[in-house]
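Case study: DinB family protein.
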Amino acid sequence: MRCSGRLAGVVSDELSNYRDYLDQYRQTLVRKCEGLTPAQLATRSVPPSSMSLLGMVRHLARVEHFWFCRALSSSDGPRIYDDGDAGFADVVATDEAVAEAFAEWRAQVALGDALLDTLVGTDLGREVTFRRGTETATVRDILVHLIEEYARHCGHADLLRECLDGVTGE
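Here is what the predicted structure looks like once written out:
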């Protein structure tokens, strides 16, 4: 992972710093999935876990959708991958399933990035209300949570990829 602008000695605002880390983890997820067959992407980690790389792509699309579209944008549409297992269930090893999962993830990333573009110059300490008015968090907390979610799952992706074909590291 390359260092964010702030760590590299370049003055960077807080939002840009968060975006840099989020982008790096998004790219890591893609790298961990590159070159694998649909069967490999759908291979579950350790039974009874339903975790697979393909499920992780679906799960992170769901995470992006929830935090950017539902929480930060106050959209109240249906959840994506509402399968009872946060996107990990019902993963199938087909080219179509892989294409659909990555298309949905890329669409959610694009929506998230567009929303982040609107936050430039705003107070990241601003509270937002979500889950039909039952919870609040600051924009900053949401961004840090997204980074944490990707960091945790990219660690899982490292292990899954190593088990599949021995590929390790960045």
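For the exam, be able to explain this: The beta strands are 127-130, 135-138.
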